[in-house]
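Chapter review. Work through the record for GPI mannosyltransferase 1 before attempting the end-of-chapter questions.
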Amino acid sequence: MTIPIPSFRSLLLASIGLRVALIIYSEWHDARSLVKYTDIDYRVFTDAARFVLQPCKGNKAQGPLLQCPYTRDTYRYTPLLALLLTPNIFLHPSFGKYVFAACDVINGLIIYNLLIHHILPKFAIKTEKDSKEATGTSTSLDAKTKNRATLYTAIHLLNPMVFSISTRGSSESVLSTFILLTLHALLNEHWTIAAIFLGISTHWKIYPVIYGVSCICLIGSLSPYSKSASNGVCNWLKTLVNLRTIKFTFVSAGTFIFLGGLCYALWGYPFLYESYLYHLHRLDHRHNFSPYFYPTYLAYPALNPTSPTAPTTLFTSPLTSFLPQLLLSLGTGLAFISTDKNDLIFSWFVQTSVFVIFNKVCTSQYFLWYLLLLPLLLPNLHMSRAKAVACVVMWIGTQALWLSEAYKLEFLGRDVFLGLWVRGLVYVAGNCGVLMIIMESYKT
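Structure tokens for GPI mannosyltransferase 1:
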């Protein structure tokens, strides 16, 4: 007995209804409970939007505008986000949540489009060939492709982590939209549009800059310059450095510089510092999944007035944490030079995963950065059911192990920092194991 698969339209309507219901519920819940459904970041965004619209004493930008979103402490995002959420002040407090939820749905539409037009057709062709050889007739592959695309898209649209984070007021879905638009343009070989969206993505949050390496590798491998080169180092250089890749780099960097220059002209140094420079020397001693959390806690100036030891200082140095992270994320982007555009999805997934695992600060919302690409990657993963179950259990289990200890610290006030850090190391090892299995199972 086969389980009927709903249409994509039904899936889309259900996901919209779910998000609207959760946003309405969040308003009811927050009005009646001390423990809020809405994320603290959403209050930060709203306060920044209020400062943009309503000048007050001390709220003065260094540029020509009088209102500065960075008057709000802990607002360390692009000022464009504060501008986007100004209707929170004069229209409705939940306006931003609806924007984030809408981006969730848009992301689902883009994922479905990529599956239908780029990823699943090659499987349909193979299935049609096998069907003709076995029965002498072809099957309704179009319907099968749409059903598969609907199932894969449901992994995003009905993912509790995805819809809960956006309806609680996290802005990650906006960045996800820019990233998927970049990917859509690349798979359609619209290099200039892709470069513009990559520049916008990097302005919004700096980490998508790691995708530039794999983008250049793809564009270069598809260019006529690489085909005309001989084998060896010369071919590799012509793949990476040619007119197409140079243009892509300049357009992408130019978009990033233009947006940054515009924001600097309007809001001055606070924009530059809070959006970018702060993150270079950021020390976050609060508990998180990162392997750097406990050494940072031990060396944190406010908690440790004495001079930290040399090993502790070395381990918490920004260069120490950035170096393995960047080497792995950029190196994996260089490692997958291919003329198959679908390999770009695999490359981005691996790059993002290692970036998140080895980031000096890692919370649950960062998992969305690579989970966004999972529905597009799954069709090319060939693993047994037992291995797939093992991956899911390992991924969820290591987080549950960490969360059970974090609960003792957060809610019971127990001194479990060392034990929590050890469990964080288990999380790192478990996630690396899952990533290795995924890499071994990937086949185009």
